[in-house]
Amino acid sequence: MLTPRLTLITQAADVPEPVLLARLSAFGALPPEARARVAVQLRDPELSGAALHALGRRLRDATAALGASFLVNDRLDLALLLGADGVHLGRRSVAVADARALLGAGAFVSVACHSVDDVLRAAEAGADAAVLSPIFATPGKGPPLGLAVLREARARLTAASRGIALLALGGIDAASAPACLEAGADGVAAIRADFSGALPALCAG
């Protein structure tokens, strides 16, 4: 799969499923090449395994119909069951190599990062993407890193000739996403923000 330009992360308490699906419907107006740069990441840790699986099936169907990608947070078993395009690994997840051993060499694997050193470690581990957060203030995620750290991460990756994608997460909305891209991010991720009006410009690159 292509590196997502925009990743929508599920969290039903903040964005109920009908709202998320309504936002996803805006993708239908995009050309196929732009829709291919969009991903939905199944997260929702408060849901039971059965509920998470059911939600994942509905989102897998919705993303497949749109030509968008579908990722699963941490749960490799659900990624397999749902035919996901890849997984996102947190600090307590399995290693990148172990995820690939189970899901296959072609699976997209992103890693949660909270510092420039984390980003470099993710690159060394062979991840496809490092998700650096929080860039801006967001509930419960600690002090924001700011755009300067995003720029530093991009510079360090370039200096080390690392091809890993750099994704920005944390307090990002349609207004601040362009600044993240200008600072060196290859894409942005968000839970609460509605990017419907910004999708054509954001996914054009």
What percentage of amino acids are in beta strands? 15-25%
Biggest β-sheet strands, sense, barrel: 8 strands, parallel, barrel
How far apart, in Å, are the first and last alpha carbons?
16 Å
- Report the radius of gyration as a whole number of Å: 16 Å
Taking all residues together, what is the mean pLDDT? 93
Which residues form runs of ≥5 with pLDDT under 50? none
Q: Which series of helices and strands comes N to C?
A: EHHEHEHEHEHEHEHEH
How many β-strand runs? 8
- Helicity, as a percent range: 25-40%
Helix/strand/pairing category? alpha/beta
Strand order of the biggest β-sheet: 1-2-3-4-5-6-7-8
Keywords:
eight-stranded parallel β-barrel, globular, 205 residues, alpha/beta
